Amino acid sequence: MSQTKTALIVGASRGIGLGLVKAFQANGWSVIATVRTENPDGPQSISGVEVHSLDVTDRPAVKSFAEQMQKRKLDLLFVSAGISGPQHQSAINADDQEILTLFQTNAIAPLSIAQQLDGNLNEGGVVAFMSSIMGSVAGNESGGTDLYRASKAALNSMIRSYAARLTNRNVSVLALHPGWVKTAMGGDQAPVSVAESAEGLVAQIEQQLGKNGQRFIDFQGATIPW
Ligand SMILES: NC(=O)c1ccc[n+]([C@@H]2O[C@H](COP(=O)([O-])OP(=O)(O)OC[C@H]3O[C@@H](n4cnc5c(N)ncnc54)[C@H](OP(=O)(O)O)[C@@H]3O)[C@@H](O)[C@H]2O)c1
User: Fold this and answer.
1) Would you say the pTM of this structure is higher than 0.85?
2) Among 75, 102, 157, 213, which residue has the least CB neighbours within 10 Å?
């Protein structure tokens, strides 16, 4: 029988992150989850899930979490935490704090976390980032939601640089689009349920284990142009 795989899901209090915790556990993985805000229905309510508190933008907290995780072997490190930014989504109206929080959360923190924890990955492991099809510069024909798009494009750029440096390691780097998902961020109109998105993402990650390279794909495996 194959050994139990271990996933670390960062940003799992609710939404797709929480869906990933449930879907990986249902597939037999051992799951470590981090949350910024405690939600009564969050990962701490699921038996067997190890939960840590973490605000991804809190640099000292990230450093101390990485130190605490030393020697813990992982097959997957998945940063799902993200925000949509100010409602106006406008370069003219954005103030410095809004820009800082958006880019820090969506683009800088995920890479900082990955770089501090990727030493824990087993051979053939996966580093996954929750990107978005909206972060595709090549695919942006319609515009709209400008600041969020730019933050995910910045994330994608950081991912490409990171993956280029990791070519000497037997790990894969994935930028993932979860679909348009019914969550606080995706809204009620979204066609994809959290469970459907999470199950699709788990399947894509399981297929990627043991391979290396970098890919930008959606929850059904379709390739997205950078
Ligand atoms: N929903 C969609 O259609 C869609 C489409 C494409 C991409 N995405 C991406 O998928 C990811 C998850 O989105 P979602 O739809 O599940 O959104 P959501 O329901 O709004 O959940 C966002 C999650 O990110 C966490 N988070 C935000 N800032 C954080 C911080 N500073 N530190 C730690 N955790 C933080 C939140 O924690 P708190 O509970 O503490 O706020 C929450 O768990 C995001 O990266 C998003 O950009 C979503």
Assistant:
1) yes
2) 213
